[in-house]
Amino acid sequence: MPTRAALAHIPGPPAPPVIGHTLTIARDSYGTQKEYIRRYGPVYKTRMLGVWRVNLCGPDALEMVLMDKDRIFSSEGGWDALRPIYPGGLILQDFDGHRQNRRIMQAAFRANAIRDYRARMAETMVALLADWPVDRTFCFYTAIKELTLRIGGAVFMGLPLDGDLARKINRAIGNEIRASVTPIRTPLPFTPMWHGMRGRDFLRETFRKMIPERRASGGEDFFSQMCLAKDEDGVGWSEQQIVDQFNLLIMAAHDTTATTLSVIMAALGGHTDWQEKLAAEVAGLGDGPLDEEALGKMTETDKVFREALRLVPPVPFIPRMALRDFRWQGFDIPAGTSLALNPGVTMLSPELFSNPEAFDPDRFSPERAEDRVHRFAWTPFGGGAHKCIGMHFAAMQVKLFVATILRQRRIELVGGAPEWQRMPIPKPKGGLPLILSAR
Length: 439
Ligand code: HEM
Hints:
The chain is α+β, with helices and mostly antiparallel strands. The protein folds into two domains: about 1-85 and about 315-380, Uridine Diphospho-n-acetylenolpyruvylglucosamine Reductase, domain 2 (2-Layer Sandwich); about 90-315 and about 395-439, CATH 1.10.630.10. About 50% of the residues lie in helices and about 10% in strands. Strand 6 and strand 7 (about 330-335) form a beta hairpin. It starts with about 20 loop residues before the first helix and ends with a strand. Protoporphyrin IX containing FE binds next to helix 11 and helix 16. Protoporphyrin IX containing FE binds near residues 313, 318, 380 and 388.
């Protein structure tokens, strides 16, 4: 890791001893970033949790680092903080090894497999949403996290909805996720990291025990698909690889979807014109099954989904580590430097999007296509070799949810539009209280 002296030529704000910029950035990460870009330009350094990091801002930096044509930038080094909980996951791999494993994982995202997930998810969603309160205020963020975890038990693992095992697994997943973002990285007893590591061990053991049966009889869930998955050369995964890859997959799928659905609900509650437009789109689908054809017709919902991801992306920063020296915008950056890319603030740039803070899904209409001004203007799913493998699955889940809710309910915000916590996991401050009433 380069010392402060090796980065002396990179501009940046003065860093208070020990804590550096940790608290300032944690308090208001977007405001701080915008201010630092204004003062120092699109390349500046900050110090967080004891690590000096060079921030490379804007769409050109996203393109250069994520496309990585000279194989300089390591995702494994960038996401190092995830290693204790998710060793061996796709995002903690680079280059040829990553590509080979990604090909195998791709098998679990085949069209046939996705069709099965969709059918199971549609059914599960109706059952779970039937239990949600009507005409009474409830905290949407808590409810949606619970719902996505329970759907995950069924769709990702093929478990019964209310089984004891599904409950234990969900608790362990929650503990892992909390551990992956905790600032105290040592697993001292009863700290989040300690709970997270215990959760990891429990999940590894549980998944491992499920493998022989799933290998023998298959199943229409992600886990079974991953047990059977093979690349074009017929190569599949060992038990350890299945366990590690699956563990990362459920983490990658969970909070991202819960955050996106929260942003969409807040937007529809605050913009009743869009709520009614989407309700009409859903009504136009009739009462039939929400199959591929029906979801394909939800073009207005798709615009809202894209706009939600632009305004509050679940992954607003993408970390990498430089494996070799490189030069960017006139700055020499040494090997070993931790880098931060900023898709979140980039997607709020007035140079790329008109009136960027406003909720305006029509900016994605074919006539306006604001996201096309730069190949990396709209990047909630990243890009290049590590681009989100679950993006179509996420879109499907969002559409199923929106259609299921709007077929029956009207959404009303309690207490107005929420503010958003941006770090470590984007979520609505105050939990997004709202009321659902009969439509
Ligand atoms: C709205 C929801 C989602 C968002 C915004 C999102 C965002 C992202 C981003 C930005 C990356 C790239 C990170 C990087 O380059 O360092 C990524 C990777 C990944 N995502 Fe998603 N994701 C979402 C949903 C999902 C879902 C539903 C799944 C699984 C079903 C999933 C599985 C993954 C996996 C496995 C990776 C690692 C890919 C690799 O390293 O090759 N994600 N996601």
